[in-house]
């Protein structure tokens, strides 16, 4: 597997993407388990759970996820935004 991780390079969130997939499928009356997603990704469930916990996944795993569940993702990129500490944005109002 590649050492390049999508979530760190493209701000994509594996955890948020999995949640999005589960939510969209649930809306359609389909419940998918972590084991089923791991099987679609061709990775062991233990590896899937590690990726989920770390919110970090190799590029090829994200590519497989997008390919295998493209009808649900519809080309969407599910990511995260890092917020700066509020103290970093204080202005001098004297």
How would you characterize the overall build of this protein?
The chain is an all-alpha fold and 94 residues long. The protein has one domain (6-80): Orthogonal Bundle (434 Repressor (Amino-terminal Domain)), CATH 1.10.260. It has six helices and no strands. The longest helix has 14 residues, at 14-27. The protein is globular. Mean pLDDT is 75; it is low at 1-9 and 75-83.
Q: How do the strands and helices of this protein lay out in sequence?
A:
Blueprint: H1 6-9, H2 14-27, H3 34-41, H4 45-54, H5 59-68, H6 70-73
Helix pairs in contact: 3-4
Would you state the CATH class?
Mainly Alpha
Integer tally of domains: 1
The backbone outline, from C-alpha atoms, is globular
**SSE order, one letter for each helix or strand:** HHHHHH
In CATH, the topology is named 434 Repressor (Amino-terminal Domain)
* Average pLDDT rating: 75
CATH architecture: Orthogonal Bundle
Using brief descriptors, characterize the structure shown.
disordered N terminus, globular, 434 Repressor (Amino-terminal Domain), 94 residues, mainly alpha, single chain, 0% strand
Summary?
The chain is mostly helical and 94 residues long.
């Amino acid at each position: 597997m590649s050492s390049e991780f999508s979530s760190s390079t493209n701000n994509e969130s594996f955890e948020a993407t999995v949640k999005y997939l589960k939510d969209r499928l649930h809306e359609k009356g389909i419940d998918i388990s972590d084991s089923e997603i791991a099987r679609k990704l061709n990775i062991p469930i233990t590896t899937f759970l590690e990726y989920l916990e770390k919110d970090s996944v190799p590029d090829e795993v994200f590519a497989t996820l997008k390919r295998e569940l493209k009808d649900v993702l519809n080309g969407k990129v599910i990511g995260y935004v890092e917020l700066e500490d509020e103290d970093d944005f204080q202005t001098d109002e004297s």
